[in-house]
Every structure is written in C-alpha cells, then in structure tokens.
Amino acid sequence: MRQSQLFTKTAKEPPKDEFSFNAQILIRAGFIDKLFAGVYTILPLGFKVLKKIENIIREEINNIGGQEIYMPALHPIANYKKTGRDKIDVLYYTKLKNGSELVLGQSHEEIIVPLMQKFILSYKDLPKMVYQFQTKFRNELRAKSGILRGREFSMKDLYSFHKNEEDLNEYYKMAQKAYFKIFKRCGLLDLTYLTYASGGTFSKFSHEYQTITEAGEDLIYICDKCEIAINKKIIKEQSACPFCQNKKLREAKAIEVGNIFKLGNRFSHPFGFQYTAEDGSKKDVVMGCYGIGLGRTMGAITEVHHDKNGIIWPEEVAPFVASLLKIKSKNAMPAGRQEKVKNIDKISDKIYTDLQDNGVEVLYDDRDVSVGEKFADADLIGCPYRIVVSAKTLMKNCVEVKRRGSDKEELININEIINKISNY
Ligand code: ATP
Ligand code: MG
C-alpha cells in the first residue's frame, strides 16, 4: 500500500485520556482510534493485524476439526434465564419494540447449545467442534487496560461436544497444543504460560494462557521446572506446582490471552441437550469451550514487542512485511548523486511493484514528508523490515535493508532485493 493513500496519520503524542501503553502506541501509530473507554475503532493497519491473528487462529482451529459459523449478537434473555446467567454483571440489556427482553452477547454458550441441540441427536453425531469470530459485549467495570479489556471486543470462541468426559479430555489436549501453536505464530510463545485456574464445579482446573507483561491484570505463579503457572485466584488450594510439587514458584504479572474450559453438562443440562447413547439410554452432551481475544492478543503483542521508537511486530502478524522508504534528500549533493535522484521515483516504484508481485506485503512510504518523519514513522508502525531507497544507496546500485529492532543495516543490490526479502 502507498502510505500517501493511507487516510490515517501517526501522532507524536497519545490522547490525554488514554493511560495504557498498548492503546497509546496503537493510537499513535494509527492502528486504532478511541471512541470511549474500552471501545475502539479498528483502523486499516490494525485491521490487517487483527485479520492475520484471526487467520492464524482459523488455520489452527480448522486443523483440530473446528467448523466455522457466525452467531448473532442479539440474544433472547430467556436463554440466559435457563442457565441462571441473566443477571451477571457484564450484561448489556435491551428490548424489542414489543417488549421482549434481549441481551447483547457476552459469550455464546446460551446460543450454541440450543443450536447444536437441533442437529446432535445420537452418539453417531458426536464429537463435533464449532467456532466463530464474533463481537462480544461486556459491561466491564474496569476498562483501563486499553484493548486488553474492551467493552466491545472480538473473540474466537470454540465449543466442543462429546459423549463423555474421556472424549472431551482427549480433545482438550489437542486444543492445548493448537493454542500453543497459535501463540507461537503470534510471537507470544516465550512469555506465555499454560496456567492452572479454577475449573468451576465440573473439573479441578481450567487453563488460561497467560502472557507475562507489566500491563497484566492477573498475578500468576510460575514453576520454572515444568514451565507452567498457577493463577493467584487458586494459589491457596494449590500452593505447589501440580506436577512436581515444587513450592518455589515465581510471581509475575500477566494477561490472560486465551482460556480453555471443561464445561461438562453445565450448559447442556439446563437446555435438556441429550443424545441417544449406544445402549439406547439418554445422556447429557459433555462440552468444552475455548476462547481467545483478538484485540487482547494484538494488545499483548505490543506490550511485549516494542522499543522506545515503536512497535516491533512479529513477522506473521505484522501489517506489512516491509516498509519501503523513498528518500529524496533536498540537500545539495554531488553531480553523480543528482543523476541518480532523477530516477529515484521510477526505481522505487519498480521495487514496490516487484515486491508485491512476489507476494511481499509492502507499506510504500512515497509521501512528500521529511526524511526524519519517514524513519520515525517506519519505526513507530514497526514492520519487520525497513528498505531505504536513496540517492546514496543508488550510487552503489543498492537499497539499504534493516530489520526492525536491530541496528545492523545491510546494503543489498537492487536486483537481489526481491529474492532476499521473499526468502528472509
Ligand atoms: P478476564 O478474566 O480477563 O475478564 P474472562 O475470564 O472473562 O477474562 P473469557 O470469558 O473466558 O475471559 O473470554 C475468553 C477470552 O476473551 C479471554 O481469554 C480473553 O483473551 C478475551 N477477553 C475476555 N474479556 C475481554 C475483554 N473485556 N476485552 C478483550 N478481550 C477479552
Ligand atoms: Mg471477564
């Protein structure tokens, strides 16, 4: 994309009413805009990142048998009365003109259960795994963590349906692995711990994926031997590592980027969602649920991957692989260089189209702004590679390539740049 066409602009200062680092930097760099606390517009650069996170999740969840659907956000309150969740504190309430009471979806157990009940009748229909990417509405009391805690946010929610606990347990293990793959691809693996949390009434534990960051709202206790953690909320019952009984746990602030939960019949039972077993008896369908917040993941990435100049996107989730900077210095220069400057537009344009033709996504800074501004913006936006085309580099028939976050610059012949970048 040509940066001259991008309608957003970067800002030197974050808005005065934004206190969280993730939202400050994403607003400054033009990825999101704040409407009010906990509610943000996703701008073109942010949209690209969120779609990449979404596609990573989609691939990994499809790999473990997930079937994608899209459920409504308007829910009849009657469904919540069945499960006793009609008064939970995060619900937004609304009404139809005829007076029927509705809530805005904060999660979709109450919708997916009656949906699947129409199709799952016998043991032959099980197991099934169904997921969606949907906006959730939660009237969060504290919305001070930027996009880590939105009042409206996008979530991947997967639900699995099984004939018994053993089958659920088996799938649950597959989901755990898929989650690690997702967080690896999002550049969060090194700081993300499988964390034991309360399992509610059905199982001893649920599991959270907690990413260590000072911005985190949770406290976790890490067992460095087993590379797992325990959430503070259950540390009293579980004062040692559940695997090695190690009591020397390391405390850290962390944010829950995902969680997985064995629901058992917590939601199937109130709806009378049963299947006919092999022996002809009726049994409750056993369920699991698995969430990941998309915005929270994007926010966590910025909290973890940045320096004083801006964001440092992991490659798979970066809005573009490279920023291409066309530098037309207005300073006096030797005659040889002046010659080169004449062709700089043509050469830069060609590198831009060649890179794109070879599948490299490029943000082409073709704007008529100062050199300093171009460099500052490239760092702030944080694409993994910065390619500079200037009279100086063209004197050597080269462009200058630098990886974001490193200070090593490399001169690469313009004929080799396509090969180099597409093979990095
Ligand atoms: P938390 O304890 O942080 O409030 P939760 O237990 O309410 O999270 P779930 O309801 O299980 O979370 O939601 C699944 C995932 O959705 C979470 O792991 C997180 O990634 C994301 N999520 C939850 N609440 C928010 C929010 N307010 N804003 C952004 N993402 C959220
Ligand atoms: Mg919550």
Automatic annotation (TrEMBL):
<dbReference type="InterPro" id="IPR050062">
    <property type="entry name" value="Pro-tRNA_synthetase"/>
</dbReference>
<keyword id="KW-0436">Ligase</keyword>
<dbReference type="GO" id="GO:0006433">
    <property type="term" value="P:prolyl-tRNA aminoacylation"/>
</dbReference>
<feature type="domain" description="Aminoacyl-transfer RNA synthetases class-II family profile">
    <location>
        <begin position="38"/>
        <end position="314"/>
    </location>
</feature>
<dbReference type="GO" id="GO:0004827">
    <property type="term" value="F:proline-tRNA ligase activity"/>
</dbReference>
<protein>
    <recommendedName>
        <fullName>Proline--tRNA ligase</fullName>
        <ecNumber>6.1.1.15</ecNumber>
    </recommendedName>
</protein>
<keyword id="KW-0030">Aminoacyl-tRNA synthetase</keyword>
<dbReference type="InterPro" id="IPR045864">
    <property type="entry name" value="aa-tRNA-synth_II/BPL/LPL"/>
</dbReference>
<dbReference type="InterPro" id="IPR002314">
    <property type="entry name" value="aa-tRNA-synt_IIb"/>
</dbReference>
<keyword id="KW-0067">ATP-binding</keyword>
<dbReference type="InterPro" id="IPR044140">
    <property type="entry name" value="ProRS_anticodon_short"/>
</dbReference>
<dbReference type="Pfam" id="PF03129">
    <property type="entry name" value="HGTP_anticodon"/>
</dbReference>
<dbReference type="InterPro" id="IPR036621">
    <property type="entry name" value="Anticodon-bd_dom_sf"/>
</dbReference>
<dbReference type="InterPro" id="IPR004154">
    <property type="entry name" value="Anticodon-bd"/>
</dbReference>
<keyword id="KW-0648">Protein biosynthesis</keyword>
<dbReference type="GO" id="GO:0005829">
    <property type="term" value="C:cytosol"/>
</dbReference>
<dbReference type="Pfam" id="PF00587">
    <property type="entry name" value="tRNA-synt_2b"/>
</dbReference>
<dbReference type="InterPro" id="IPR006195">
    <property type="entry name" value="aa-tRNA-synth_II"/>
</dbReference>
<dbReference type="InterPro" id="IPR002316">
    <property type="entry name" value="Pro-tRNA-ligase_IIa"/>
</dbReference>
<dbReference type="GO" id="GO:0005524">
    <property type="term" value="F:ATP binding"/>
</dbReference>
<keyword id="KW-0547">Nucleotide-binding</keyword>
